[in-house]
Backbone:
DNA sequence: CATGAATGAGCCTTCATTCAT
DNA sequence: TATGAATGAAGGCTCATTCAT
């Protein structure tokens, strides 16, 4: 693992553990096993690791989606898998997403956020588009816009369970069912 | 306006303008027109104004909803008003919401967030419940869970427009339409 | 008890408990049951209570000496009582003495300390003088100078026991015996 | 001179000049010719230099004793030299001793003080022990306990002169004589 | 490339003191 | 006399960043 990768991994670790404000460069370099000055050979400032962290995170999201959704299956099942993966992502990276969001909100323009999530949005757009072309979901959907709505919706639902709720397993199933029902209707899903 | 209110107003102003990390207590007291020490008579630390800000914000949200939605009109029109108000709220307070969310993520447990939004959730729950009882929306909806989904959905949509997008007015109408369509289907809206 | 007395008593309490630097005016007024501003009606500044505390302390010392030493008994027994009382004083007020000493060292001229202890020195001087006039102790002693030496000696001995040592009771008796032996020889005590 | 030594020397200087409470870290670093932050690389807090100062001071005391007392001469002359050195020490470091004592009283347990003075006590103990073994002072003395008494005694006497009195030179000789006389008797000194 | 000691600007917070009531 | 809210100066400490080695 290169020094740069070490730093990014250590930063993820430390930011998750301590939060943005309390994550010191000294913590990160300690976790990375490098010297204080070395950090600045790779990143110009403390918060400039954030985009790199975001990139790593989105890569993981994309991988999870691609691995978790079987393009062979019927759309209805795929949709269920999309929700499952979305929940897994929030479970595993929800705090990290919130962190990066906050980090970006504090530094650069929030618009940057769209670029970060772009691959996720693109995947979802394509997912809907294909279903639409096959007549599985209603034709009136604007897949580009709805892809963002759906991602927001899945995240909202998952946050209800993982960030806020306590009795997770129980709630999770109920929320997922409600969400799937919601999506079925929203997408005008036709059971072929 | 009491000193405490002055501080909260000034804090809102400064946090919005400078972001969490760069908002100094000295900025806040200057904006509030009080002495540095006075701040600490009302709040034990710099970030402890956050919950107070959140409370003010939610009060404004509730007021906006109650004023913006005419309970006399048919549900379909009310829903449109709900979306309109939701968009207005995000337009006006979106950055503040993001700020508070980040501020809370850095200090207390994220669960606190649910308490803050509780009145908004409660209103939405009741809104759906009445529609359901009148048979306007499908009976299979769990209004409590869906209220959160819908609020998340409206916020996602509005953020697309106001936080990220540039060409706002144009986009806004399209996104709103897409969202309303999405909701109509999701809720199984019956046009009476 | 007058307000002024209340303040002095509260100050003694708080200074003993928290030490000089950490004893806040707010602590003192709270302990005294008065308002913050009232303190400044009686004392011009935070540390200006110190002399008043010192005065109270010396009064207690004098009282203890006068009550604890029986002028009727032979000198040898009186000397033992003087040592006993000296030890009691250090046990009870040793920390306070150190406190006042430090407090004075930080503010005014250390010379003030002599004025504070003056009554104690005077009593000891007189005590020695009478013994000398009766031929009980050696004539070559300068009672004025030696009174200070002896007080310093008793305090040193008692501090060994109460401020520093752990196994107090055991040690105390041994130290007292050693000290008395030391004093007997130093004073050239004649057993009549 | 290492940075740490520079800090200690500067701290001694500043604490003596301004007293404990008014000695600011900024004063110390200025005197040491280093940056403010550098102070905290070597000491965790402002008052944590105190023990280091104490150590330096005791080293100086030991050096002064070893240089000022000629172990070859007869005990009586050595005792005079011990008193002379003791007076010199108080003259030169008396204020520092009071300072450190107060500083320690404010922070750590007072017991620490005994550890600091331990080398001085040990030297005196040994000094007495040898005289006792040679029959020069009375056999009934417990040298360990009396070493502390004697050090307390010398300090008391010297403080009378240097800390409190004005007409120093005059008084000094008289006090010294009185003290030596006092010690001769107390120790049961035999003039061989 | 790597190091880590050194820097120093800057902020949060405390608290003695004041003063209008 | 008494109050206690308000003041604001002041300082300990942190920590991102630099740079000589």
Residues:
């Amino acid at each position: 693992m290169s020094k740069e990768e070490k730093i990014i991994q250590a930063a993820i670790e430390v930011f998750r553990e301590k939060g943005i404000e309390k994550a010191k460069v000294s913590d990160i370099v300690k976790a990375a096993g490098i010297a204080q000055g070395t950090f600045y050979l790779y990143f110009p400032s403390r918060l400039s690791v954030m985009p790199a962290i975001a990139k790593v995170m989105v890569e993981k999201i994309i991988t999870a989606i691609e691995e978790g959704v079987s393009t062979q299956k019927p759309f209805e099942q795929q949709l269920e898998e999309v929700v499952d993966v979305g929940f897994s992502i929030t479970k595993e990276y929800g705090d990290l997403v919130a962190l990066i969001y906050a980090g970006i909100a504090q530094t650069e323009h929030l618009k940057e956020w769209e670029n970060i999530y772009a691959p996720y949005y693109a995947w979802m757009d394509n997912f809907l588009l294909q279903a639409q072309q096959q007549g599985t979901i209603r034709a009136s959907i604007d897949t580009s816009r709805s892809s963002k709505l759906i991602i927001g919706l899945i995240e909202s639902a998952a946050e209800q369970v993982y960030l806020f709720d306590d009795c997770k397993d129980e709630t999770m199933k109920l929320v997922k069912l409600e969400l799937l029902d919601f999506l079925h209707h929203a997408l005008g899903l036709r059971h072929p």
